Amino acid sequence: MSNDNQPQDLQLKLRNITKEDIDWISEASSMLSTIRLDYQRVFNLTGTVLHTNLGRALLAESAIKAAVQAAAYPTTLEYDLDSGRRGARADVIEQLICELTGAEAATVTNNNAAAVVLALNTIALGREAIVSRGELVEIGGSFRIPDIMTRSGVKLREVGTTNRTHLRDYDAAIDEHVALVMKVHTSNYEIKGFTHEVPTQDLVGLAREKNVPLYFDLGSGNLIPLEPLGLPFEATVKQVLSEGIDLVSFSGDKLLGGPQAGFLAGKRALIDQIKRNPLHRAFRLDKMTLAALQATLQLYLTPERLTQTLPTLRDLTRSERDIRAVSNEMLPEFKVRLAPDFACVSEGLLSQIGSGALPTKQIPSWGVSITASEGKGEAQLALLAGALRALPIPIIGRITQGRLLLDFRMLQQEHLDDFRASLSSLKMP
Q1: What distance in Å separates the CA atoms of residue 409 and residue 349, rounded to the nearest whole number?
Q2: Nearest alpha carbon to residue 257 among 219, 228, 299
Q3: What is the CA radius of gyration of the chain?
Q4: CA dist., res. 292 & res. 314, Å (int)
Q5: Which residue, 263, 379, 279, 365, is CA-closest to 315?
Q6: CB neighbours (10 Å) of residue 59?
Q7: At CA 129, angle to CA 216 and CA 156, rounded to 5?
Q8: What pLDDT is stored for residue 357 in this prediction?
């Protein structure tokens, strides 16, 4: 039904707009026109596979399809088809995690930081939790274990020293005020030299003797042994739980290769307690993430195919020969576009896993190394890096030791046409 007075009302409103209003609207529009509001596709040539700033793990095709279907149609998110009644939101995820890790029970949150907060707030609220001084980590985004404990309502009790912590340090600290012993995976650094860390089995024995839960924040967390794939050793969640740890937490979008999520797995009594915490609902996942997560975990039921079906493991295990072939193929393109201001060569590089997973371990790779002509140095390289970031599909590399390095580990053959098309728009300032 139309409103006959609408034009007249609009004219009255327009008459009340001042010149200052018009100037402000014009200025705001101008500012907005310079801001990119989209999440833009890029080419990750940094050499870091799980790059936090570039979105970490790429989803498997089956996970993408599952997320799209969940977004496009009504789903059985909290509906039981058998009974026709309300169902549990993450039951299937929890069943898969238990099957893959051997845990008695599990639950899932929107990221691992939330899992840590939830575990601490549930088990040790108003009491103390023991952590070795060598494990008081800070990771990206200023996530610091002491601060998280405080916000979770838990008092930190530090034991040992930065480089050496002994079983007797834990033993002396456990009293009636202590509700939890916590281990934290030092995911983004290593302490070397004169060091000592208490073996997990010894800590498990002490925690059982004192009747105190032992919680291990694994950070990245992986579900299968990596060594058979030619990657460095990292204990699996199943291995850690089999040693007697009561509760573990880990991420979904790192080595696991799924969407952003956090997992808690372990003893049923602790998981049931965590699920009753009101914060559990505040940290829950949406339907699209759950769908993608289920599809990702189902890939692990056929682990022999993971290097073909899971992009994270595909990229981490990609052969140096294959990467070198891409680098050699692309080298002439860079030479033509960058001569004579830059020299380009194809050379062996070192990739890293990223996102705090195995921080000191590197993987042989290959890429293009670019140096500026004599006398121009890193300032010219910075201009080139900026020009590459300004392409229709930005190309992100890294500058180190006077070279701009473009690591081709993450550039698949099927994307080379898109890469060339974007590179063809390169214009130096």
Answers
A1: 10
A2: 299
A3: 26
A4: 18
A5: 365
A6: 22
A7: 115
A8: 63
Tokens of 420: 């060339």
pLDDT in tens, 15-57: 455 656 556 656 655 655 555 557 899 999 999 999 999 999 9
Cβ pair 278, 145 in contact under 8 A: no
Q: Give domain limits for the chain.
A: 43-55+315-423, 61-305
**Burial class of residue 237 in the structure, from the number of CB atoms within 10 Å of its CB (0-12 exposed, 13-18 middle, 19+ buried):** buried
Q: How many CB atoms lie within 10 A of CB 196?
A: 13
* Nearest alpha-carbon partner for 228 in 315, 321, 304: 304
| Residue type (1 letter), 36 | R
What is 43-55+315-423's CATH number?
A: 3.90.1150.180
The residues with which 219 forms a beta bridge, in sequence order, are 250
Is-contact 321 365, C-beta < 8 A? no
pTM attached to this predicted model:
0.87
pLDDT tens-digit profile of 391-415?
Answer: 999 999 999 999 999 999 999 999 9
Measured between alpha carbons, how far is residue 270 from residues 104, 148, 160, 351, 405 in Å? 10, 20, 27, 39, 47
Pairing of strands 178-184, 128-132: parallel
Class of domain 61-305: alpha beta
> d(Cα 230, Cα 179) in Å, to the nearest integer?
40
- The structure tokens 């969640």 sit at 237
C-alpha to C-alpha distance for 233 and 231, rounded to whole angstroms: 7
Q: Is the dihedral of CA 152, 157, 162, 166 positive or negative?
A: negative
Euclidean distance between the first and final Cα of the chain, in Å? 56
**Angle at CA 337, nearest 5°, toward 331 and 343?**
60
pLDDT 10s digits, 261-293: 999 999 999 999 999 999 999 999 999 999 999
Contact 173, 165 (CB under 8 A): no
User: What length does the chain have?
Assistant: 429
